[in-house]
Predict the 3D structure of the following.
Amino acid sequence: MTLFSPVEMAPRDPILGLNEAFNADNRSEKVNLGVGVYYDENGKVPLLRAVCAAEEARVAEQGPRPYLPMEGLASYDAAVQTLLFGAESSLLESGRLVTAQSIGGTGALKLGADFLYRLLNKRLVAISDPSWENHRSLFEAAGFEVVTYPYYDPQTHGVNLEGMLEGIEKLPEGSVVLLHACCHNPTGADLSLADWTRVIDVIQRRNHVPFIDIAYQGFGDNLQDDAVALRLFAESGLPLFISSSFSKSFSLYGERVGALTLVTESHDEMLSTMSQLKRVIRTNYSNPPTHGAKVVSAVLNNVELYAKWEEELAEMRDRIRIMRSSLVEKLAAAGVTKDMSFIERQRGMFSYSGLTKAQVARLADEFAIYAVGSGRICVAALNTGNIDHVANSMAAVLKDD
Ligand code: PLP
């Protein structure tokens, strides 16, 4: 018996397993639609020109590398607030906002979860059905009971709003409700402005705690419209938790750049909340890394670089949109009679394609196309070089059913 001999293998991460199978496949036409990142037309993770410019300036500066404060780089935290709430928002000068730089969006969720664990007696969080896989694991690991509220309607390929409202209504009063601000992962189905108003109304009435995850700001319509849910929540006067991430919007996945932002009710609350949040940070990793935050801050705080970034973000968003409509067209041309136009209506990097587990398995076996068993496909992994093969192969498995 050794110390480690009782340790059992953890369950395999399904996405990692998929990547392994993809890498081991030697068919030249293979396509990986299981990924969670944006690929450009050449099938590569892009390095944005605005990021490059900010990095070059940072290297040229040859500055020292001291620790950051626990809550991160001040110019970065302020820029995050402006991006979330808009430059005109009265919240920016209200003294009620707490923002702490975090280790990506995941780190922000974990900071928020750890903080809420200390704050609440009833540790219950409701996530959408389905949601990003890590939401459940992360909150469970932080000591929460995790339940779901209805979200996706497979009939319409959109949101089951009535089910969602009813599900949130039925939760015990004071539950934490986790919501996706835009570009819902994994379904691509988003709420409309009118839908958000109704969701806010139930949350307010039931004294729930809203926690909004915004990991794809700029991938839906544009930076402002994609943040509309946050702004409506803020206007409602509810306390608010927001986890945000620049992994996708700056294509800075490995630099781990995110933030946790809280809307409190007064300046005093902000001060005490920030002091407690710093304790959570201090006892986890002490203070965040510098590079990603310096780069993002340099871009967001410089008029020319900001404009360049916004342009590049629009290029990514538009390319995904073109791939969506092209896929719908090509599926129809390949003889799929079922209405697939929902792919065009879904937003962000993903689409719940409606493919069954068996169809996904056939795509891998017969056509070297890899997707998640749930039928989630990453539209951002399509390009003009692989879309015909994907459309024809999807058509083949769809038509046989
Ligand atoms: N939230 C959602 C909905 C996501 O899809 C992701 C990443 O895929 C994250 C959070 C985590 O982002 P990050 O990579 O910045 O930790």
